[in-house]
## 1
Amino acid sequence: MSSRCADGDRSFVAELGLTVPERVLVVCTGNSARSQMAEGLLRHDGGSRVEVFSAGTHPCFVNPYAIEAMDEIGIDISRHRSKSLREFDGWSFDFVITVCDSARESCPVFPGVKGRIHWSIEDPSFVSEEERVKAFRAARDELRARLGGFLAELNDPSQ
């Protein structure tokens, strides 16, 4: 099944009694670091439970420090590209996760969303050059911890 299947296709899969993955969109301003790392982490750690995408309110490029931080833990995001929220017009998502305050303010409403989650993750790009690698690792590790909690709740909604 294509990762971009239409909602009708998702309904058909559910009618067959198959598990339909939760569709998740992670949003930040530039879609260059935090949302890209979150997409890679969630795809890796969530496996077939989630279908994950990321986008930005003002997309630019995938930050090389984000690629490096993810590579350190064995997750390759080097082929990711920065995407605009407009690319997802008309899509439906089960969850929308914003990872910066600016994106929270300007993220559009997606009809039918089960949950809208906001995490204010510090932007690792805006630190001194000497601190940048450390800041990207810290953002990656905070995202992984928060996404781990999110995945645990998906497995056991009573939490």
## 2
Amino acid sequence: MRNGSELNAATAGMAARVLIVEDEAHARHYLRELLDDESRVEVIGESSNGVQGAQQIRELSPDIVFVDIQMPGLDGFGMIDQVAGSRRPLFVFVTSYSEYAVRAFEIEAVDYLCASLSIKSPFRYRLSERCGDWTRLSQASLTLNG
């Protein structure tokens, strides 16, 4: 389980360090474009598959990971299983498949964005909300652990 003490205290009060894990190049580009507009976000990496995503989570220690579910090789759920022993970031699933939502929340995802690449406004709002959640959680962690 996650708690505030597991957040990266070094980045508290600063931009959330974000990793994008998505196999489709156009979807990665779209997410990055939206996230680059957020002042509370620093995109620190992109991965095109779950194996690479798990490796980058261990190496980069992101605060938030935006992850697709269906990817070749290792899917989003498998990737999360692979990083179970390391510092666990907040996971936001970004997918066009609604049928995996319950499973995503069972593994403590903070959100499940059923995205249509043609709908920007509601999607942008939800991305912004998740980045704001991270900011509030990291500040609370410093207050409780400081």
